[in-house]
Structures are given as structure tokens and as C-alpha cells.
Write a structure and sequence with these properties.
By secondary structure, the chain is an alpha/beta fold. About 40% of the residues lie in helices and about 15% in strands. Strands 7-6-5-8-9 form a 5-stranded parallel sheet, sandwiched between helices. A 4-stranded parallel sheet has the order 2-1-3-4.
Length: about 300
């Protein structure tokens, strides 16, 4: 089987069958990753370029590991050490890279729409690793896999996304992915961090985190982007934590089992207390593990190589 698109630019409009195929393929790769030698020759001879114009730890390392586990040739690009510092345009950069016979490009950029732009410049498959405030599809896919593992299903699951919804590309992709798979979604945060038209996505909205906790089966707690604090979108870090921070006291008060997720990096003591992040409520490290398997699945399914080559 193959995906309905030759690129992964986001989860908006991606059919449920595609998401299901990616998740099921990722499960197969998790078995491979548990072996003594967690490597298969599936993408031997394929070349993948990691084109990162923004800082990244988890996403970049996860993609690199996924590529290496599949035996692909990997080329890492960093804008800080490239000709981009000399004024070279993105179009010229990617066209020159493509001239070296590449098959796939994993791109992260601060500008929304860059992955789509690249599809018009080169023939390689493009994978969006985060573009501005638009989408971060592989993060949402690993979140979906983590939830499916925990609950055994996504249909009917109640997931509350807490924090900066306006600037959070993770929130956008999660909303699209969760809704496609039949889950219910609520968003919660300060009014200044929730788009006015968010209800058009078919989600519930609350500005009370205790209400969100009471409603949800799982909380996906997003990083508060401290660099935006200078914009005055909320009074102070201390006040944000008091109103929206996830604490053990809040979780215990709800008197229910609830699952805590976070895409990282965590601002401990701001959106999430350490004793919550490190507790039995948390599946944060499982998310990281699942990230490698999901990205292996995406790379395989966009490579044109038959899935039968997994062994």
C-alpha cells in the first residue's frame, strides 16, 4: 500500500486511511527497533537531506535515527553553516542539493508554506518537520500512535490540548489528525493564545484548565513559547502557571486517571510541573520513542519502496 500523496506537508485533508497506514507501519518498525541490531536495508541507496533552518533537538535526531535505521544515506544541512549565510536563496539551495541526486527532503523552517514551496522546486518527496505556525505533522502522528498504544483506540477519545494554540503548529496538526481519527478535541489556554475562529475546526474551547482536566482522557500540554512573553500575551510566567500549569494537585483533585503528553522541550514549572512530567501519568518518553518509528514509517511510505522490504 502507499499514501495518497507523494509528500507529507501537513495533516489537513489527509484521509483517515493514510493516517491509519502510517500508524500501522510504525508499529511494525517498533518491533524492528527492539532488536539487538535495530536496522534494516529497506532504504539502502536512497538519499535523504535534512534541511533545517530552525533549531531542533528531538525532531532532527529522530529523523536522523529513522534514516539510519532504514540504511538511507543522510545529508544534514544547517543554515548557520551554509551558503544561506552568504545570501543564497532557498530555491537556489534546494536546486543545487537536488542536482546531487537526492530522493527525499525533510525540512524545518520558520516560514509557513516552505514545504509546499519546495514541492514546486524539486522532484524529491518533501516531508514537513515544522513550518512556522502552520503544521508539524510527524509530531502529531507520533502523538496519535502514543495515544492509540495507551488506550487501544482513537475513536471517541477525549483529548484536551493545553497552552499556546495560536502559535502552536503542533496543536494544528493534532487537531486535524485527532478529528480525522474520530477523537474529540478541546483546546484550553489564555484567550490571547487561542484563535478566535478555532471553533471552525470542530473543537470545544475552555479557558479553565480544571474543566479541561475533568473532561479529558488525555492532556497534550504545549510549550509556552517564552520568547513571545515580551509581546504581553499573558501577564507573567508565574500567573500562567497559576492559571494553566498542570500540577499533581490539579490532577489528584480530578480523582480520575488521565494521561499527560508534551511535545518538548518542557518548561518545567511553567506549563508542567516536574513531578507531573516524571510521574506515572506521563507518556512523554514513549512519545519520543514512537517518534523514530513514525518517521521511519513516513520515510518508507514516501520512498516508493514496497513495505515488504521491511525484513
Amino acid at each position: 500500500m502507499s499514501l495518497s500523496s507523494s509528500h507529507l506537508l501537513g495533516l489537513e485533508g489527509v484521509p483517515r486511511s493514510d493516517i491509519q497506514l502510517i500508524l500501522d507501519t510504525a508499529v511494525s518498525f517498533k518491533e524492528i527497533l527492539s532488536r539487538d541490531i535495530p536496522k534494516v536495508p529497506t532504504l539502502r541507496g536512497k538519499t535523504v537531506v535534512n534541511l533545517f533552518y530552525e533549531p531542533s533537538t528531538r525532531t532532527r535526531i529522530s529523523f536522523e535515527l529513522a534514516e539510519k535505521r532504514l540504511s538511507a544515506d543522510t545529508v544534514n544541512f544547517s543554515s548557520s553553516t551554509s551558503s544561506a549565510k552568504k545570501g543564497e536563496t532557498l530555491r537556489d539551495t534546494i536546486r543545487n542539493i537536488e542536482a546531487m541526486n537526492i530522493d527525499m527532503v525533510v525540512v524545518r523552517h520558520s516560514a509557513a508554506g516552505v514545504p509546499l514551496f519546495l514541492t514546486k522546486c524539486v522532484d524529491a518527496a518533501i516531508i514537513n518537520a515544522g513550518d512556522g505556525m502552520h503544521e508539524h505533522p510527524t509530531q502529531a502522528l507520533l502523538d496519535l500512535l502514543s495515544l492509540r498504544e495507551k488506550f487501544g483506540k482513537l475513536e471517541g477519545l477525549k483529548v484536551a490540548i493545553i497552552g499556546d494554540i495560536t502559535h502552536g503548529r503542533v496543536a494544528t496538526s493534532n487537531i486535524f489528525g485527532l478529528k480525522s481519527m474520530g477523537a474529540e478535541v478541546m483546546v484550553c489556554g489564555p484567550k490571547t493564545l487561542i484563535p478566535r475562529d478555532v471553533d471552525q475546526f470542530g473543537v470545544q474551547v475552555t479557558y479553565n484548565v480544571d474543566e479541561a482536566i475533568e473532561w479529558a482522557d488525555a492532556l497534550n500540554v504545549l510549550r509556552i513559547q517564552l520568547e513571545r512573553q515580551d509581546s504581553g500575551l499573558f501577564p507573567s510566567i508565574r500567573e500562567y502557571h497559576a492559571e494553566f500549569g498542570i500540577t499533581l494537585e490539579r490532577l489528584n483533585r480530578a480523582k480520575k486517571e488521565i494521561t499527560i503528553m508534551h511535545p518538548g522541550p518542557i518548561n518545567r514549572g511553567v506549563e508542567l510541573d516536574s513531578n507531573v512530567a516524571d510521574s506515572d501519568f506521563s507518556i512523554i518518553l514513549q512519545q519520543v520513542t514512537n517518534g523514530v518509528a513514525v518517521r521511519m514509517a513516513v520515510l518508507l511510505l514516501l520512498s516508493g519502496v514496497e513495505a515488504s522490504g521491511l525484513n
